[in-house]
Each structure stands twice: as structure tokens, then as C-alpha cells.
Amino acid sequence: MHFDHEEEDRNLSLSKFESMLKTNKVFFFDSEEFEEIILHYLDMGKATLAKKALKLGLEQHPKSTGLKLVQVEMLIYDEKLDQAEKMLNELYALEPTNEEIYILKANIYSKKDKHETAVELLETALQYSEDHADIYNLVGMEYLFMDNLEMAKINFIKCLEEDFEDQSGLYNVVYCFEFLDQNQEAIDYLKTYIEKNPYSEIAWHQTGRLYYGLKNYELAATSFELATYIDDEFIGAFLERGKALERLKRYDEAIVSYNQTIVLDDPTSYALLRIGKCYEKLGNKVEALKYYNKTVHEDPLLDKGWIAITDFYVSQKNHQKALYYVNKALAIDDQNRLYWKRFATINKAMNNIEEAEYGYRKAVELGDFQLDTWLFWVDIMKIMGEHNNGILTLIQAAEYFPDQFEIEYRMAGFHFLLNEEEKGNFHLNNALRLNSKHVSILEELFPLVWDRVSVQEYISKHKKSE
After folding, report:
1. pTM of this structure
2. How far, in Å, are 339, 346, 404 from residue 364 at the CA level?
3. Torsion of CA 298, 299, 303, 305, to 10 degrees
4. Which of 146, 209, 239, 310 has its CA 20 to 30 A from that of 247?
5. In this predicted structure, what is the pLDDT of residue 5?
């Protein structure tokens, strides 16, 4: 009720102030009312109205330290740091024990990248303040700026010891633990925190995240579930629980959890996609396809949606449908290398060799430098009889994958086909040296080369020397 009363008073003050601006009548407000009005407008991003309120406030209360401190805040916001510091020095002469002066001065030094001085000022503010939580939080932030995560963590913990309800402090302390690779220590800390504050949905959610990172999906799912018991509208916890349940292969439960996010808010393409994946894992192809279609309808730019629907049809050996959907995806975004790779793979399966070659080429041009992409592309060139282009492409691939036996066997094969015996032997020697167990690559891809007596003799000679 006290909070409602305060809110009502604030709304009355705002209405009265805005009425004054409209009518040009001058109403009296006490200095604290002006402070609340100014801060309200600043929070709303209405700087012009905040400045009008400040001007009127100072006219009515020219000696108000509170209003002058708000003025300093606005000067800092406007990056007028020297002017702000001058005002603070004047206020310090009048009120040397006012903690707000030290806090604002620390803000100025922080903006000047003098974080150690900022920390010293904030530690002085602690001596004069009864509200230590906010100041510890600010000290922690200064240590973050200095990349001193250990000291930042210590101060965020102090912040929470002063105010267990400080959610930003809780997020910050977990961030420090994670950055320091102290995930188990973070869980231990959160256990202690939860003992004192068992109904903190944030603490349970963060515990779940940490367990998930440690691949303890059972405890992660339990932690997320407890977060949803405390806050039954906690969308993030339902979503994360779905992910953990997927990892546990409890797909029916994961679907329920993902569906809850859709009940609470507009459906997200991510949740729709995951539901589709769960149904596919359960063997329910009809529902899987339904949700994949919903995914691309909800967000046509999400590549994972189009990839899921394309891969679904590929797994069903329905290459015609798969090609239809990958072409739809390319019509929306023809700069997506994942789409082009699938376009190539599908065309290869359909024996559309030229289209497959074009797809792999586009995928590489757009930054797909995975080894299998290079090799698939080269193997298509071999089918097309483009031996020289195959060699040039393998030379490019070798820049990313030096000393790769799969590349060397193919290089040898191409050179032998071009009757370049010396180069063929050179690359065959490299391939055998790197991995002689996979010499069958040469047999499978280059049977004519494999059947050559000279090649067989070279292989036999190498095996004897091993």
C-alpha cells in the first residue's frame, strides 16, 4: 500500500507539472518532487522536459543540493564533465560527507578511463552511505572495466550480501564466475544464495545454465523447472528447460516446455524449430513438417528453418521436394553458403552434375571452407573431366588443410590422369606417408590410375619400406 501511495503522489506531481507547462501558470513543488519529476523524464528519455523541470526547480529552490546533484547527473549525461566536476567541487565544500558527491565524481573519472581513482572515490562514498549495495555494484563495474574479474566478483558478492534482491548484482557475479572458468564454484555460490533466498527464480535459472554448460542436463532441467514454479511466466526458463530435456532425449516433455513459451508470448521461430526437431526425433513426420513450415512462415530469414525442412526431405529421399525448398530459401537469401551446399548435395544425389558443381563453387565463394565441401566439389570436377580445375581447387584447399591425405590422394590421381608421372608420384608419396591405410581413396575415385602397373609398384615399394 505504501508503494501505491508513493506512485499516486508521483503521478499527481507529474500531472500538476504538465498542467503548469500547458497553462503557463506557476505551481509550487518541493525540491524532492522536482527531483522525482526530473528523474522520471530522464528515465523516459525525455531530456527536454527534464531540463525544463530542472530549470524551474532551481528557480524555486536555488540552494537545493539534491537538485544541484541532479543537474550534475545531466551534465555528465551530456558529456560536460569539466563543468560537472566544478559543480561537485563547490558542493563538496558545502557537504563533504554527502555520498552522492563521491559517487558522481567516480562516474566522471570512470568516463575518463581513470577507474582506479573511481574505485577510491566509491570506497570513500561507502563510509558516508547507508545503502552499500548500489555502491558495491558500482565498484564491481569499475573492476570489470579494468578486467580485474576476481575483484569485480568480490564486490558483486558484497553487493548481494547487502541486498539479496539485487538482480543485476546476481547476474554480474555469475558472469564473473563464468568468465574466470569457475562454473562449479558459481554453482556452489548459487546454492548458498538459494539457501537464503529459495524463491529467486533468477538464481535457479542461472544454476540451470551453469549445469547445462557442464553437461549435467538432468540437474539443469530440474533447476529450470524450479525457476518456472516460482515464476510461471518465465519464458527463458521454459525455453532452456526444453533444451535440457532434448539433450536427455525426453522429447515429449521438451515439446511441452517449448509450447509453454508459445502460450506465454508470440511464437518464436526458435521454439517452433525445436518442437519440429523433437517431433522428428519421435518419428512423427507429419507434426515435424508442420512445425518446420510454421518456422519458415514465422521467420523466412532464419536459415535453420529452411535447412531443417530441406534436410527432412533429404532424409526421406524425397530429393525433388528438398530441391524445391532449398530453391525457395535461395530466392530469399542467395548469399547463404549453407543453402548452396545443400543445393549442391541434393543435385549431386539427383545426378545433376553441373548444378552440383555450381552449388559447391558458390558455397566456397561465400566462405564455406570446410574440408568436405572442397572434396565434394573436386570429386564433381573429376566426374566432369575438369582435371586442371580440380588440381587448382585442391591447391586452394591445401592452404586451409596442409598435410591432408585426402587432398594428396586426389592430387596424385589428377596428375596421373594428365600423365604427369613425376607430380603424381610426389603427391602419392605424400599421401602414403600421411595415411597409407586410406589408399583405397585412389582406387575408388581414380580406378584407371589404380590399375596402372607403375602405380601399384610404387604403392608396393612404399609398403615394403614401412
Report:
1. 0.75
2. 12, 16, 18
3. -10
4. 310
5. 47
